[in-house]
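Reading a protein record of the kind used here takes only a little practice. Each token is a code from a learned vocabulary of local backbone shapes. With that in mind, consider the following protein and its fold in token form:
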Amino acid sequence: MRNRIAVVTLVSVCIAAPLGAMAQTVGLGPPTMPVDQVRDIAVMNGLIAIRKIELYDGKWHVEGRDQSGKRVEMQIDPRTGAIAHLERFD
């Protein structure tokens, strides 16, 4: 009985480990980018007054104003740091 439990445990570990790694590669895992890095990306893209940074719907959402005073909204991918959406309003 003890050997059977050991075999079942070993098999379950062998199945679960690749599934966990696969979840990370398809974007189901936790965000890897800290909020400080998100703020730096926003500043590098023209925001000088950041009003809000939130993580929801799988993306960082940043709101603020640029140097000319226009309102800016952007979405940043938390795994790659790529800007998924950028919009400037008058």
Summary: The radius of gyration is 20 Å. Residues 11 and 60 are 38 Å apart (CA to CA). Residues 21-25 have pLDDT under 50 and may be disordered.
